[in-house]
Each structure stands twice: as C-alpha cells, then as structure tokens.
Design brief:
The chain has 10 helices and 6 strands; from the N terminus they run H-H-H-E-H-E-E-E-E-H-E-H-H-H-H-H. It is an alpha+beta fold. Strands 2-3-4-5 form a 4-stranded antiparallel sheet, with helices on both faces. A hairpin with a 4-residue loop joins strand 4 and strand 5.
C-alpha cells in the first residue's frame, strides 16, 4: 500500500532531500512545523552564498533540518549502507515490509521527468514507499517533487539508476517517536536565534543597486534564487509561528513578506522576458520589503514566543 505524500507547500526553495523529509513528515502527521524555528534565513547569508559564492538555492548551506533538529521532534535519521545493487534491492524491500519509506539517491539520466534525462549522470533524491511483485519482476513505487512524479518503476530501471552510484549505496529512513518531542528546547533555540539575528539586509541593498545596471542572465538568476529563498523561508517561519500560537499580527507580517518577495521575484522574471521594467516603482518595492523585514526582525527580538505545551492526561 502506497503512502500519499505531497510536496509541502513553501518548501520548493530547499534541496530535494530536505523537501522530501518535510513532505514525508507532514504526511505522517509529525509536527514538522516546529522544525521551522530556524527557517528564517538571514539576507546577509543569502547575499554571501548566492551572490558572492555563486551557489544556487539548491546548493545553499542552510541549518534547517539538521539531524539535531529532527531529534527535537522525535525523529531519528538512520541509514543502511549497501555494498552493491542487489543488497540495496533486498534492503529496500525489507525496510518497506517493516513499514518504512526509503530515501535514496538515483541517477536523473534515466527519469524522463527530470531535467538531466538522457543528458547527464546527475544524482537526485527520491522516496520509495512501496514495491510489488509481478511474476518474477519487482516494481518500486517512487515519489519526486518539482516536478511532481509518482509511479512504479521496474527493477531494471532501478538497477540502471544505481549503476553510477558511489559505494556503499546509502538508504536513509526516519524513525518517529512522538513522546520524544522537546517543546521547551525548541522554544529556547528559537528565541536564541532571534536574539542573535544581526541581519543588515545587504541582499536588498545589492538588488536595489542592480536595478540601475544592465542586468545579465547571471545576475537575474542570482536575484531569482535569493528571492525564492526569502519567500520560502518566511513562509515556513509563518508556519512555525502559527504552530506555537504566536499573535496573528506577527504571523501575518511573515506571510506578507513571503508574498511580497514573491511579487518582486515575479517582476524580475517578467523582465527576463520583456526586458522592460519600471525602475523607480521596483526600487520602491525593494525598499518596502527591506523595511518590513526590519520590522519583523525587531518584533521577533522584542517579544517572547511561548510554546503552549498540551496537557497530558
């Protein structure tokens, strides 16, 4: 029986494995929103990694969803290392028989929905949630997001997708213990993160300056990826604030910033097509975004966001 796993809204800015972890945990009703206590990426760090170092949003080194964070909500990330494809296939079946789903890196070269199909051998994370036997052949049920893909893949396709793997082949699964949830620790970590937030919003200053320049494709791509990170991280922050029952005003502020960053992102996307832009209007939008970010930062630093611990009966 397959598990219905849908891409978690607002997580598409993350790398494939983190997005899949979040989506799976949401599907099994784990309190994944509490993991977003550190979702708010500083724009200074976005500027450093995406603009200065040239990383894509998928290569961005985020602290979100580390192993230690997973443990805060009762999740243990575990792995089985397999010496060859046959052992990997046996282990996948065994894990699924035990009620687990498997996270595995497969070669995009063999999947028609992926951008590197029949072009490059580039590995991407997939979820395997089920398998079936038909006569002497095994089929594995795969999930992927961005673009969405679900369906059975035969064992020959799986073997090809593992052919260029680095050995040992790593199969990852998650164990969930709801009783291990650490509310107080999450609250403390969130407040500490807010207190140490020294963001100067250098990303917005850089984007503002680019408006008057002749923006090439490389610059536009950096802007696109950086604003995607802003949009996604502020949206996930709003989900955390909602989960811990913060005031509606600060939740709405985080949501507003996420939507406003997306609006500016769309303006730049349109510019890549038309090469037309209202520079003064766009610069006002960027200044407005920066102002709202500063207000949100101050609000989060000047108030205590307490987690309401449910009573035990």
């Amino acid at each position: 029986m397959t598990i219905p796993i849908a891409a978690y809204q607002g997580s598409l800015h993350l790398n494939c494995r983190k997005m899949q972890f979040i989506s799976y945990l949401s599907a099994i009703n784990a309190p994944v929103e509490l993991l977003f206590y550190n979702a708010m990426e500083k724009t200074d760090e976005l500027f450093q990694q995406i603009v200065c170092e040239g990383k894509s949003r998928y290569q961005y080194n985020s602290s979100l969803l580390g192993k230690e964070d997973l443990e805060l909500v009762g999740i243990q990330e575990k792995a089985i290392l397999c010496k060859d494809i046959k052992q990997a296939e046996r282990s996948i079946k065994d894990m699924i028989d035990r009620g687990k789903v498997v996270f595995i890196w497969l070669d995009q070269f063999y999947f028609a929905h992926r951008v590197y199909y029949l072009k490059n051998h580039f590995f991407h994370s997939f979820i395997i949630s089920a398998y079936k036997q038909e006569e002497r052949e095994t089929f594995y049920y795969l999930h992927d997001f961005d673009p969405d893909f679900t369906g059975f893949v035969d064992e020959n396709a799986m073997a090809k997708a593992l052919e260029y793997s680095k050995y040992p082949i790593e199969l990852v699964y998650l164990d969930y213990d709801p009783s291990a949830l650490q509310f107080a620790q999450i609250q403390s970590l969130f407040q500490d993160r807010m207190d140490r937030n020294d963001d100067t919003f250098s990303l917005y200053e850089w984007i503002f300056a680019q408006v008057d320049e002749d923006m090439n494709d490389e610059t536009l791509t950096k802007i696109d990826h950086a604003l995607a990170m802003v949009t996604g991280s502020r949206y996930l922050l709003s989900k955390y604030l909602t989960q811990v029952k913060s005031g509606q005003a600060v939740i709405a502020q985080a949501e507003y910033i996420a939507n406003f960053a997306q609006l500016i992102k769309n303006v730049f996307i349109k510019y890549t097509i038309t090469r037309k832009i209202n520079k003064e209007k766009l610069k006002k939008l960027i200044l407005n975004l920066k102002m709202n970010e500063a207000n949100l930062k101050n609000e989060l630093q000047n108030r205590q966001h307490k987690i309401l611990v449910p009573k035990r009966h």
